[in-house]
Amino acid sequence: MIKLQDIAYVRSGVSNLAAAADFATRVVGLERMPESEPGVVHLRADHRHHSLALVEGPSGVIASGFTLADEDALTLAETELEQRGFTVARLDADAARSRRVRSGIAFDDPFGNRLELVSQQESVARPVTFSRGAGITEFGHLCLDAPDVHEAYRFWSDTFGARVSDWIGDNACLMRIDPVHHKLAVFRGDGPGLCHMNFQVQSIDDIFRNWHFLVDNGVEIEMGPGRHPQSTAIFIYFLGPEGFTYEYSFGVRRIEEDAAWVPRTFDPAELGSIDMWLGPTSRPVTQPQLGSPLPRSDSGVPA
Ligand SMILES: [Fe+2]
Question: How far, in Å, from the CA of 236 to the mean position of ligand 1?
Fold first, then answer.
């Protein structure tokens, strides 16, 4: 079993880097880190050097990153994944540097989502200089697509010990790797991709202030403001450039007594199962996974 320490980052390819970076800063409110690499914009939300990296090139998700405890855990994970039949590639030095990690490995989950496991993701000590006062407190969770969420849960549970917190029928599996109700979700989708990336905000006021800001700026609201009955989080989903869905949310449930929690199942067809305030619901737009082949393990994953 591989123990995930935390979510680390999303890396997304964009054909128009300037437009995507402008949206991530001016609209979402993330801090644009000083340029260190041509064609890559690092966006900061919390203690992490960055949670989102936009990479100039073909449009689509490049990878979703998770931290492991240390180098030994990474080496063990590499062996375990290979034993389970996955093709695993090491990040080369440039790729690790670009991700601000000491080292890492990449592999594709059974549904084609590229996952990266990394060690020693860099923290930045100074406070975040947000581009806009959206109230962001941290990178909250990421959501991937898979054709069968039950199969996806089997993979995440068997491989990483992720625990299901709640099911939304056959449509979604919300999983925890720490006390947060979900740091990881899988939504049913035709192919691999990133369903959305979530940032937590400080208060319910931020949700509603952001809602007005987004509407005033002509941003497409996908869903919300509403409240998920599973996590009790108050949410708003909105669409960024190149099919990338962002979510702000506030008030996610914490499950402190792990053993006492019994996962529930909500029928998506029942009123209020997605939004207990009964607002209109729609499935967020997924940014498809880029189908880049993994390099041979001795050549390393390029930046
Ligand atoms: Fe979410």
Answer: 9
